[in-house]
Specification:
Layout (H helix, E strand, L loop, with lengths): L2 H29 L6 H11 L5 H21 L3 H19 L12 H16 L6 H4 L9 H46 L1
Pfam family, one: DoxX
Membrane topology: Multi-pass membrane protein
Protein name: DoxX family protein
Length: 190
């Protein structure tokens, strides 16, 4: 087997592995498959962690993961697929970041690894064992890579920034309420 053939096989295996995991996580959110909670349950969870509106956030996250994962596995529209999946994983990593890096402590390790794999596939391309190759790379042009990654990075930054702002506002409100309670307790003690 030549080095070129090994590269194609390696890219296929990476696409199938990362794409399959992304697909499974996305369908948990969208359809409740594989022990997931579907749009309703995931939407409620998204609201609780600051992504609002919850159902829209659950749908976007599920589509980025299931859609991006499916397209990555097929090797179709690889720049857009990789960028979408990476954006979804950046949103997940933001949720897990306060827990540190390692997954066993609830950290962002898993999300970061999937996001990195998706980004690498968007950049490297799908290889010859792909639908992009079979279709003459119609939706896998060189200019699409930076465009897809930049657009996804911009949207992801806005979404995560809005989430962080909501969480900061909620934290400030809780602290102010705690201060009011402390002031009231002091009045009763006098």
């Amino acid at each position: 087997m030549s080095a070129y053939d090994r590269r194609d096989l390696g890219l296929l295996l990476l696409r199938l592995g990362a794409g399959g995991v992304l697909f499974a996580h996305g369908t948990q959110k969208l359809f409740g498959w594989f022990g997931g909670h579907g749009i309703e349950g995931t939407g409620q969870f998204m609201e609780s962690i600051g992504y609002q509106p919850g159902k829209a956030s659950a749908t976007a996250s599920g589509l980025a993961e299931a859609g991006g994962g499916t397209l990555l596995a097929l090797g179709l529209a690889t720049p857009a697929a990789g960028a979408a999946a990476a954006g979804g994983m950046a949103g997940a990593a933001a949720v897990h970041a306060p827990n540190g890096f390692f997954d066993q402590e609830g950290g962002y390790e898993h999300a970061a690894t999937l996001g990195l794999a998706a980004t690498c596939l968007a950049i490297a391309g799908p290889g010859r064992l792909s639908l992009d190759h079979a279709l003459g790379h119609v939706v896998d042009r060189g200019w699409m890579v930076p465009t897809a990654l930049a657009a996804t990075a911009a949207v992801t930054a806005v979404v995560i920034g809005a989430r962080n702002k909501r969480l900061d506002e909620a934290r400030t409100e809780r602290e102010e309420q705690a201060g009011v309670f402390e002031d009231q307790e002091a009045l009763f003690e006098e």
